[in-house]
Amino acid sequence: MTNRLTLLACCAFLSLPISSYCQQPLYKDASQSIALRTQDLIQRMTLKEKIGQLLSPLGWEMYERQGNGVKVSQKFKDIVAEKQIGMLWATFRADPWTQKTLKNGLNPEMAAEAANELQRYMLKNTRLGIPIFLAEEAPHGHMAIGTTVFPTGIGQASTWNPSLLEKMSAGVAKEVRLQGAHISYGPVLDLSRDPRWSRVEESYGEDPVLTGTLAAAIIKGTGGGKLSDPYSTIATLKHFVAYAIPEGGHNGAAASVGERELREYYLPPFRSAVNAGAKSIMAAYNSIDGIPCSSNSFLLTDILIKEWGFKGFTVSDLGSIEGIKGSHRIARDYTEAAVLAIKAGLDADLGGNAYPNLVAAVEKGTIEERFIDTAVSRILRLKFEMGLFEHPFVNPQKAKTEINTQEQILLSRQVAKESIILLENKNNILPLKKGIKLAVVGPNADNVYNMLGDYTAPQAQGNVITIVQGLRAKLAAAQVSYVKGCAIRDTIQNTIPEAIVAAQQADVVIAVVGGSSARDFKTEYAKTGAAIATDQTIGDMESGEGFDRSTLGLLGKQMDLLKALKKTGKPLIVIYIQGRPLDMNWAAENADALLCAWYPGQQGGSAVADVLFGDYNPAGRLPISVPRSVGQIPIHYNRKSPLDHRYVEEEATPRYAFGYGKSYTTFAYHELNISKETSKSTYRVSFTLENTGSYDGDEVVQLYLKNQFASTAQPIRQLKHFERVNLKAGASKRIEFIITADDLSVINMDMKKVFESRSTFTIMIGSSSDKIQLQKELEI
Questions:
Q1: Does 3.20.20.300 match the CATH number of domain 33-401?
Q2: Is this entry keyworded Amino-acid biosynthesis (predicted)?
Q3: What is the pTM of this model?
């Protein structure tokens, strides 16, 4: 130890790099600080090696299967030699775009072996032996063969249950890490205010507080930024920022939004996740006020680094740096695009094709090398934090036995149950009695992949429970008949007459309609992986990345099916399996019961059956408003004052409002009290919630606030707090929320968040945004 200290002192005295004298490189010494190890490693790296660490090529091309064995591909060897890459993306991804199937893709054990082989090659065949980061898609489960599939983001948000999502995300992170990956893409924090947009299913809805609260819980579940934990992942937040409000609903189109709205609505969910420990953020494809998000220094440097103190790294969306030239027409060539991006603060290049141009740019003096050093230091620091230099390998046997376990499957079922929203229940037709005979019809009644949503891998036989299967597990085989009736889009498929016969022979009809984000091998794909909508192939897919809509009605012959079923006179229960809020007007008015289950994941069929038969009392709540028509869009609940007025053709109100959902029981709200706390500008809001019905159940209580007078226009109401509360039948509970100065603050004329004194607020307690049960004025 004395010799070591003497050597360090000598190096410092001579003002020479420590690496010139130390036989054991400091960056390989785990006893040294991460800052020193990072600095030492960067000192040793060539410019090309530095830029290589910023590259993240497509990973599924980097391995080869040989029977049950896996080895690195020649393409991987070539790209390592040529570009000295530091990351791979979607190595274990399997879907029609990657052309990886159950036959040629990787199961969890083989994925872990592949990860080990990739790491082993990097350590043995590169000059500095830097481990490689493996990034994987994981918005509702790891997008890989054999993993657990949870409901998509919009379904997760419908639970309004942060603690449940924290547990879910911990399970997903563990499955990612067991296979040898390190970065999990998700959650998607785009506020969805246009259901025409193709990726609503991935989001957490329209509200910043709900999205931010759930995001913080998810980040906590992935490890909260404590990367030394063995199952902690680097969660990549998507998509920074205002990506879900594209003009015309076109995915990736420009967003028309000002700085104040950014700060009021679109930035807070990301800040909430950053405060919870998130260490990676993906820049969005779109532009804001004419500046592409991928080269927007205001967003990537001024906001993230200078204002928020973000300690992680940013990454482009796939090919979005090239898009600065190709899509946005800002740069004249890819070198200029790369320079604009890295100067703005975009650290990593997903796709790996733009940033190699930075080598020549630095050599020509177009950009200073310090920008490269800053970006690479952010990535290397996290590799050290995660302990990859000391522990680059994983145990394939653990991946084989600890992924998609019974515990995880039950958790998927619980998330699905809590996500289901009961929208109508006329004459209390639900829950059903188990002695009845059912006719189950519709394109989504027995379709495995339509249950899962986009960003889902191929599924082994029996891994996904459809609604027909879930119902048959509750009843005798003779009690459940099934006829498809029609397809989602294709009008050629038509067994409506057979469906009518089945309905006439049943006691109750269950019609499962909606949409699909299920990709197939006939679908065409853009270079970014987004599906391309064409008239040539009529599959089920009408949602999912790239499948934007101009209308929201049911497609194909689905409405013909519903109307024909109604004419039978049999009780009709309609279930929407969907990725966006579709038109529910007819079902709302004509169905005896109406449920929204979004894409409920691999246990969705069991969860729906649990709800239909009362084995679980539904308490899902809408995280997004359901419009009556496309002409109402945008119709989010927290629009700015003044209030909307009626259209000529219809009401200005949505069909179903944000926060709405029914239960099999009833709840009453009593005794609202507001008291000032000892701390400045802090108030305690309390009230009594009582279960007045005959079923045990959950109620999602919601606190909204209206700022009556402020220096800038404020929302007509804004969610500030919520809680999912379980109560036995007849029981009551005192509920409390703490309102802080932050809750009462506004973005003023100078774009600063301030608490304005001498204000009047209306405090509203409700069961949804349009069903306020209690309210009081608060004078400050």
A1: yes
A2: no
A3: 0.95
